[in-house]
Amino acid sequence: MTKLGVYDLEVRYGKVPALGGVTLHLQEGERLFVSGPNGAGKSSLLKAIAGAVSSSHGRVELDGDIITGKSAEAIARYGLSMVPEGRDIFSTLTVEENLRVGTGIRADKQAIEGDIAEIYDAFPILGERRHANAGALSGGQQQMLAIGRGLMTNPKLMMVDEPSLGLAPNIVDQVYDTLVALQQERGLTLLIVEQSSARAARVGGRMVLLRGGQVVGDGDAAEFAERDLLKEAYFGQADQSKSTEEAL
Amino acid sequence: MNAVPQLFFDAASLGGIYAMAALGIALIFGVMNLVNFAHGEYIAFCVFALIVPSSDAVAVMFLGKAPAILLIPVLLAFGALIAVASEYVVFRQLRNANPVAMMISSFALGFVIQNALLAVYGSRPKAISLWPDLNTPVSVVGASVPLLQLIVIITTLLVVSVLALLLKKTRVGLEMRAAAENFTMARLLGVRANVVITGAFALSGAMAAAVAMIMVTQTGVADVRMGGQIMLVAFIATVIGGLGSLPGAVAAGFLIGAVSVVLQAALPLEARPFRDAFLYTLVIVSLLLRPQGLFASASAKPRV
Ligand SMILES: Nc1ncnc2c1ncn2[C@@H]1O[C@H](COP(=O)(O)OP(=O)(O)OP(=O)(O)O)[C@@H](O)[C@H]1O
Ligand SMILES: [Mg+2]
After folding, report:
1. Which residues contact B186 (CB under 8 A, 6 or more apart)?
2. Cα(B122) to centroid of ligand 2, in Å?
3. pLDDT at residue A238, rounded to an integer
4. Which residues of A touch B196 (CB under 8 A)?
5. Strands A206-211 and A214-220
6. Under 8 Å between Cβ of A126 and A59
7. How far apart are CA A5 and CA A90, in angstroms?
C-alpha cells in the first residue's frame, strides 16, 4: 500500500527554486534513502512534506489523504514525524521534557510511559540523563534524543534528515541499528536523508538521488554504492558525498 | 522609625509591580518575538473597567463596587479577554509578518485603546478609591508599612510562583516553553500554535489586570496615560533581564524598583527630581556592559 505519495512538488525561497517538481512514492513499511549533493533540495523536500515550508506547486498524499497546504501541527496528527537536520533539540528543556512535547496529540495516553521506557532502553544514556538540560548533551546524544522525540508522537511515517551528520562512525552505527530495530518492531515507514551511499547500502533499502531539486536516480542503495565505488576506483575520489553526486 | 526595613518594603513593592508588568511583556516576547507595546494600555483599560463610563470628573465605581472576591477574578478575566481579543484581531493577521511590523502594530493598537478610553472617559485624571483600607499602615519589624505594600509583595511572589508552576508542571506550560525556544519544531511535534499564543496572551492580560488593581489602590487615580509610564519601565526590565527570559524579567523588575527607591533616598534633595536620569544612566551602563541582558537565558537569541 502506498504510504506517501509526492507529486510534482515544488518549493521556492523567493524566486529561487529549491525543489523543481519532485515525484516519488513510498510503500508502507519501506525504507527509503534520499541522497544528493549539498543544496540538492533534500531538506527542502522533507520540510515541504512535513509542512514546515510551503510548497509552490504539487501535492503530497499520506495514506491517500491530501496533506498539501496543511499546517505542520495538523500534519503531525496524520502520523508523520520529522527529525530535522541539526536536530533542533529544545536545549532549555530537560531530556524527558523534550520527549514529552510531542505526546499531546496522542490518543493512547496509557502507552506514553511505556514508549519513554522503550526509548531509554534503546538509548540508555538518555535515561541516565533524563533530568539534565538537553542543551548539555553531546551531538550524538542529541541525535538520539531527536529520534526518540520524533517517535513520541507515535508516527507511522518518520523522516530523518541526515542522522549521521557530524557523528563518529560508531555512533552512526548505533543510531542506524536502533532505527532499523524500531522500524521492524513498529512497522514504521522510514525516509532518511543520507549522503553516503555506502552507509545506505550497509543499512539496506531503496535510494533516490536528488540533484538541483530534481530526482535523477532511483534504485537499490547497493547499486548506488557499487557505482560510487567504481567512480572512486577510476577517479580516486575519497569524498563519498561527492562521488554520489557524480553517479549516473 | 527604622529606615532600612522601610526602604526594603518600598523597594520590594515597587519592584513587584515592575516585575509583574515585565512578566506580561516577556511572556509574549518569549513565544512570538513580539514586544507588545499595547501592554500598558491593557493596564489602563483594566483600571477604567472599574468605573462607570462617563467623562465626568468624579468617578463612579462600577465593577469597583463589587466585593474583592468577585472583583479580582472578573478583572483578571477582563485583562485576559482584551489581550486575547487583540491577538485575534491584530496579531493573528500578522502571524507571518516580520517582527518590526508586528511591533509597530502593537504601538498602533495601544493608540487605539488609549483613544477609545479618551473618547469615553475624557482626558482628565479621576480620583478613584479602590480598597482604601489597604493604605492603612501596619507596623512590621520596626517599619510602618501600608498593608498594600505587603499585599503587593506577597501577590508578586504568588503570581511568580504560580506562573513558574504552570510553566513547569502543565501540558500547556511545556508547550509554551518548547514554542518559546523553537516554534517550528514545536509545531512539527503537533503543538498547536494558536493554543500556545492564546495562552500566552491570556496570562499576559491577566498580569496587566493585577498590575492595574495594585496601581489604582496605591495611587487612587485613574489616568488614561498611566499605562505608558509603567510600560516603559517594564520594557526596560525585560531588556535588562534578557528578552524572552521570564526569571530575568522578574529579577530586573525588582532590581529597577530597588534602584529607584534607593536613589530616591540616597540622592541629595536638589538632585531628586532627576532621579530617573540617574536610573536610566544605570540602565545604559548595564546594557553597554551586558547587551544580552543581565540574566540572559541560554535560549535567548540576539535580535533586532
Ligand atoms: N531558508 C532558505 N532561504 C533561502 N534559500 C534556501 C533556504 N533553505 C534552503 N535554501 C536553498 O535551497 C536549496 C536547497 O537547500 P536544501 O537545504 O533543501 O538542500 P540540502 O539538499 O538539504 O542540502 P544539505 O546537504 O546542505 O543539507 C539550496 O540552494 C539552498 O541554498
Ligand atoms: Mg539538508
Report:
1. A90, A101, B175, B178, B179, B196
2. 59
3. 52
4. none
5. antiparallel
6. no
7. 31
**Structural domains of chain A, with CATH:** 2-246 (3.40.50.300)
Q: What does the pLDDT look like over A185-222, one tens digit per residue?
A: 989 999 999 998 888 889 888 999 999 999 998 988 88
pTM exceeds 0.90 for this model:
no
- The C-alpha cell at B76 is 483578571
Whether A35 and A210 have beta carbons less than 8 Å apart is answered as yes
Q: Which residues contact A70 (CB under 8 A, 6 or more apart)?
A: A51
Q: What is the pLDDT of residue B299?
A: 45
CA distances, B304 to each of B22, B50, B224, B233, B287 (Å): 19, 37, 30, 19, 14
Q: In 3D, which of B34, B150, B36 has the Cα closest to residue B83?
A: B36
Contact assignment for A100 to B174 by CB distance below 8 Å = yes
Mutation test of ligand 1: which of A11, A38, A196, A241 has the most ligand atoms closer than 8 Å to its C-beta? A38
Pocket test residue of A9, A11, A13, A15 for ligand 1, highest count of atoms within 8 A of CB = A13
Does residue B233 contact residue B19 with C-beta atoms inside 8 Å?
no
What pLDDT sits at residue A80? 95
